[in-house]
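Tokens help. Consider this.
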Amino acid sequence: MAEVAMAGARPVGGRGTVLAAAGLILVLFLVSLDQTIVGTAMPRIIAELRGFERYAWVTTAYLLAETAVIPIVGKLGDLYGRKWITIAGVAVFLVGSVLCGVATGMTGLIVFRGLQGLGAGCSWRPSSPWSRISSRTRRSGRNIKGSSSRSSPFPA
């Protein structure tokens, strides 16, 4: 089976593949770990900020922002490169995390979780094609895509 060369793509193999896989794993771990920590700590955070009536908005803002940005980021990653989109997404995600940590009210927390969701969407979607590009084998059209329920219905 002939390999199709991508424009400007470097040969896959060795150290580059290991570094790409390590970066992919770290980005996915960062976003997943955040959801685990926030889900566990949310009742206490809401109690301290006295905002039980807006409890659902914290999660909704994150998921809505993440879901809205995924198709846009998929296209931007194709046009400008997934590496820089992912790096920008991680930076936005980390800024959002810091701002969530210093939020003094529910409105701020909701807005900053939305910002964090934008960063997560920018980090999550570009990482999906990395696993297909980094994969050396092509088994009858089945490429490694990851096992997440967060994948976009729009092909990148």
Notes: Confidence is low (pLDDT under 50) at residues 1-7, 136-141, 143-149. Residues 67 and 121 are 7 Å apart (CA to CA).
